[in-house]
Fold this protein.
Amino acid sequence: MLQTSQISLKSCPVVLVIEDEPGDAQLIRLQLLEREPGAFVVHLAGSLEAAKNLINVQGVRPDVLLLDLNLPDSTGIATIERCRNLIDDVPVVVLTGLDDASAMKTAIQSGAEDYLTKDSDGSALRKAVRYAILRHLRDADARLASTVFMHAREGILVTDADGIIIDVNDAFTRITGYQRDEVIQRSPSLLKSGHHGAEFYEVMWRDLAEQGHWFGEIWNRRKNGEVYAEMLTISTVRDGRDKIRHYVGLFSDVTLQKEHERQLELIAHYDALTKLPNRVLLSDRLHQAMAQSLRRSQLLAVVYIDLDGFKAVNDSYGHESGDQLLVAVAARMKLALREGDTIARLGGDEFAAVLCDLADTASSLPVLSRLLEAADHPVHLGSLALHVSASIGVSYYPQAESVDADQLLRQADQAMYQAKLAGKNRYHVFDADLDRSVRGIHESLQHIRRALNENEFALYYQPKVNMRSGAIVGVEALIRWHHPERGLLPPSVFLPVIEDHPLAIELGEWVINSALSQLKTWQDAGLNFPISVNISAFHLQRADFLDRLRYLLGLHPKIKPGSLELEVLETSALQDISQVSELMQACRELGLSFALDDFGTGYSSLTYLKRLPCSLLKIDQSFVHDMLDDPDDLAILEGVLGLATAFRRQVIAEGVESVEHGNLLLQLGCELAQGYGIAKPMPAKNIPDWVQIWRPDKVWATQPTVSRSGLPIIFASVEFRSWVKGVVEYLNGSDVSPPQVYAQDCRFCAWLASQESPEMANNVAFRDIEKLHLQIHELASELLAAKRNNQAQDFAEMLRRLLKLRDKTIDQMRSLLFETEGIAFLPSAGM
Ligand code: C2E
Ligand code: CA
Ligand code: CA
């Protein structure tokens, strides 16, 4: 910018005289040059047009214009404006015959630099010309400033030393909506939004006083009432004596930027899909909540939520449905919280909540229940009803040992895994004491991945046999982990950790591939039985399951696909039955067969049975295990067998641990079995030897299948065993409530009574059973009385007698059964 000190006059300034009176023009010329002939270069023009020609065509560059206001092509005050338009930034001095104060003022207002009457003498003329040039140069500074002022994009506001507005620019009006004359002589406080307290302005004034300027962001209010953000710089302007003259405020409207920032913040802190806070914001809130809980001596809970079965939904119905499900469940879970609590989405189907201000841990329980409930409701999307549930882990703060926010979240995560392991759709509270003792008991994803790469997994094989014929019908592959430190680990330790994780697919494919390799080895050795592998519902419902299976089969061209059987696990996690059914059909066309695993435990077993093309049902081992002395389990088992017959499916019983299990299953018509009573799962290399030596128990071969009419005897036997078991458990103290010992309350007695008939009166076995039963009741009463009176003396002896009586009764029940069925009694074995 120009500095006044630098201003100097050119050695011979160029003067352009615009005067139509030739005499006057010459006179002016003479006056300019009379004393110093070379002091000015003078050009004469008789009209504006002639002047324009000189400038534009002949290239004359005047430093000043001397202008007569009465020209042939322009007269009056407007001539000044026209003349100034001839060339930019050159001072115009008006020459006129009329010495009139108001005309002079008008001329100056119109932009003339000076005003001279024609009768001025030479020296006055020369002086005026020189002054005009110098003044014009000096004012360039101010003109520039004023241009900046007027055209700046920033709003500018100038106040006097008392803070009263004396000028504003156009941008001020554009931004604030106030016209210049609406704010002149007023205080800038008319722009206040009320967003800042007195303290804010105090700091501003202090900075202005001390540092001479203030810079910051401030919320103001436009004339239309709208609040906006401006970036404002205020400077103090002092005069030569250091006295404050003005304050100048320069500001720009940053509302849009602020909005943009807000959106960025939204993106940075919120999950785009569910609109819940994300991990970053959660961490922020958790830190705050932790500090607050210490201040207020309240507890807080960190809740880790993972949806059960979400991946399956995603895979079967596509991401869009999965997303919609997440949105719906997220919204419901949010409603389940109290005011002030936060729920965030951590990613995928994982969420975390922070519950603040808890008086004790118990006060968090209703919220946890509500969260479980929120997830455990079908979400309807068109005709689909998608259903997931939640596994929830909780940890509380503060704890005995100091913990940070990350640890809290990890603890809750760990507890969530416990909830999954315990069967999902539940919450589990992190136990800090327990954690210290079992830290690291669950293998992490990374360890499992490493184990897969290091080939630490192995398949064990458990034979499946026909108990009656002794034929080996196949083997089931069961995965094990040869852990370098912890030894052989069962799947319950690691499969739940990778469930719903892509790693489960990788491991699943490893299982299929290993089983196919094993088939080849055995087939080469002359062993020809199928291998069944367990397939999780998650894996089965992958869109590319069939393609991958074809690929894996292709790797083993020598193996007939018929040698591979797939056991479908967790049938309750099958989402779209018709889709799964189609897939199974396609696999069957490849030659594979299917078994439904753990049959009877899923709530919709019957639906699966009807709709899924599987040839084999595996009765869940829990029913088999207890069928000998739990009439309810026996009833379920019998029901499943009935279903299988009705639907013409084969049945295999899992968990056959004893010869007696086998007997009963055979009597009920179930010949295929698997269980520790036959063989435990073993490494592949042991299978050939086992095949050589294994023989079924002799009684199995001759065990009859009982007709419907014989069933009541079987049920009565189980009732009886169950009752004896109750007595024994009570005596051993493992069961709290004493069993019914009086004959009139006994269901077995009721059965005996119902069997009374003229034929039975002569039946030796039946008579025996009646007698034995009475003796048992007497003995049981004695035993219970002894227990009540704490007479421990002959306990062991009495118990032995009880069990002996039981076995005798069972033996007689058996002969009764065989008699009814018309089969010769085999005295060698129990039921
Ligand atoms: P499952 O498919 O029901 O397998 C039977 C489980 O019962 C096996 O446990 C087996 O060792 C055990 N078992 C067999 N006979 C008896 C018995 O007489 N009494 C008792 N108490 N248990 C018996 P394991 O090997 O620990 O496997 C547990 C579960 O892990 C399996 O249950 C299956 O659901 C899953 N699993 C095992 N291997 C794989 C695999 O390769 N892939 C997948 N996805 N799941 C697998
Ligand atoms: Ca299985
Ligand atoms: Ca099973």
Q: What stands out?
A: The CA atoms of residues 438 and 663 lie 42 Å apart.
